[in-house]
Design brief:
Blueprint (H helix, E strand, L loop, with lengths): L1 H23 L4 H17 L1 H11 L4 E5 L3 E5 L1 H23 L10 H13 L7 H24 L3 H28 L18 H21 L6 H16 L4 H16 L7 H18 L2 H12 L7 H19 L9 H5 L4 H4 L13 H32 L5 H20 L9 H45 L2
Antiparallel strand pairs: 1-2
Length: 477
């Protein structure tokens, strides 16, 4: 009886124990204990439903600070943590008791495990061991979300449910932000305009919006099947307007590169209607930029890219320089995960009143990885990115179905936009960008594998029908 129900009982026990242990070290253990127990029970009863709820709540999660400076994004991080805990316990029970193996394995499991290992090994050189271990554990939970998504989204129905869960929620968050920015139109190019919006600043807002914009654009361009084009066009317009309201140079660059990647895929199945669609989008963009006030602000923003007198540029250069210094001091395993924020201090004499709103970062994901995890960590990080791209490009050579092809191209474009944006910003440690990044990292192979299964199934059916026809022909006298 225990063997039969052990898989269902153990995750709930783990949730109770974890909640009790963490709560015991808090000045107010009951709220945290209750939160973890309820979240764990919910995840235990429906892991797929928990993934959908996490994505629905993602843009509206709020920072909850507990005594002892313990911060969690609620409800994103409690759901994410319990999803990983329950999934790991279930896999352990399956291996020990039933020895079940997944039909389609996660193709990026090896580089992901190496990156997690390096994240913890970097604690050797950290100035704050507890802080680095806590940060590494949190980062690991985010990374393992890719494995959760791959395990949960295993068929077309689950994929459609995923879209139904996340797209309306994202559209509401973007429309809310657009309204806030219009209300603060005099300061819409500054981070202060986002204080009443779901996002903390324009970089996070732009990166989040670009993901959905690119997926919508890919669906409209590459999927010639039957689907609600009116709805997808409405979503596309919503996220397009959202991007036009974004003032981040990093977002502009990342979207241009991602759209360029998509244009390279138009050689297969391209139609005049699609070309006209792209032309119309460009004309709308030019019309918006032709407005005198918008044009002047846009040109000023572009010109500020090479202006060393610009406060944010000075701050970015200082952080890049500090990242190189940290790397040279510990080139193998770096200074420890999260060490950049511990060691770097703003020089007010150089950057003036410009300061970071939250935790300090290197203003480049790649340089921050190099500084905190060393050359080994940077090598594995590049391996993770290249493995994703290689897998996607190989899949595009074999996928003929318009629906799956459009989704794969959209997911690749979204991830490419983030990879490009990471050259000038470090956004991966925040839930609004970290969850989509790692979610797409797991969703791409899930979509590719379900496309392969459906293709194999169709080929099998065609083969059976052909054999039936041949046998029937031979039996005719």
């Amino acid at each position: 009886m225990f063997l039969k129900h052990g898989k269902r009982i153990l995750p709930f026990i783990i949730c109770l124990v974890v909640g009790g242990v963490i709560g015991g070290y808090s000045d107010t253990p009951f709220p945290l204990f209750s939160l973890l127990v309820v979240t764990g029970a919910f995840v235990f009863l429906g892991m797929e439903l928990a993934v959908y709820l996490l994505l629905i709540a993602l843009p509206f999660s709020f920072r909850y600070i507990l005594p002892g400076r313990f911060e969690i994004q609620t409800p994103t991080e409690p759901l994410l943590g319990m999803l990983v805990a329950v999934y790991c316990v279930q896999k352990i029970v399956d291996r020990v008791l039933r020895k079940e193996k997944s039909e389609d394995s996660f193709p990026f499991f090896v580089p992901l495990c190496f990156y997690i290992l390096i994240t913890f090994l970097s604690a050797i050189n950290t100035p704050d061991l507890l802080g680095t271990l806590k940060g590494a554990f949190r980062a690991t939970v985010y990374m393992l979300f890719s494995v959760i998504v791959h395990a949960v989204i295993q068929n077309r129905t689950a994929l459609k449910r995923l879209f139904i869960a996340i797209f309306p929620s994202a559209a509401v968050a973007v429309i809310w932000t657009i309204i806030v920015l219009i209300y603060h139109i005099d300061a819409w190019q500054w981070t202060s305009a986002y204080r009443s919006a779901p996002f903390t600043n324009y970089s996070v807002y732009g990166a989040f919006t670009a993901i959905f914009f690119l997926v919508c654009l890919s669906r409209l361009l590459f999927d010639n099947g039957q689907y609600d084009r009116v709805l997808w066009t409405a979503w596309f317009i919503c996220f397009s307007v959202g991007l036009l309201m974004c003032f981040s140079r990093g977002v502009w660059l990342s979207v241009i590169v991602a759209v360029g990647f998509m244009l390279l895929q138009l050689g297969r199945g391209v139609t005049q209607k699609k070309i006209l669609f792209i032309g119309a989008a460009c004309l709308i963009l030019l019309a918006c930029l032709s407005l005198p006030s918008i044009y002047n602000i846009f040109i000023e923003r572009i010109a500020s890219t090479v202006d060393l007198g610009y406060a944010s540029n000075r701050a970015r250069l200082l952080r890049w320089g500090q990242a190189f210094v940290m790397f040279l001091e510990s080139p193998i395993l770096g200074k420890g995960y999260g060490a950049f924020a511990m060691l770097y201090e703003e020089d007010v004499a150089l950057v003036g009143s410009y300061t970071a709103q939250y935790q300090l970062g290197a203003h480049s994901e790649y340089l921050q990885v190099m500084a905190e995890l060393g050359i080994v960590g940077l090598g594995v990080w590049v391996w993770l990115n290249l493995a994703f791209l290689r897998y996607g490009f190989r899949a595009l050579k074999t996928i003929d179905d318009g629906f799956y092809r459009a989704i794969v191209i959209g997911l690749m474009a979204a991830e490419i936009s983030l990879m490009v944006h990471f050259t000038v910003n470090n956004l991966l440690n925040g839930d609004a960008v970290g969850v989509p990044f790692w979610g797409i990292y797991g969703l791409l192979p899930a979509v590719v594998q379900m496309a392969a299964r459906e293709k194999a199934s169709l080929e099998t059916e065609d083969s059976v029908e052909y054999k039936i026809k041949v046998v029937g022909t031979l039996r005719v006298p």
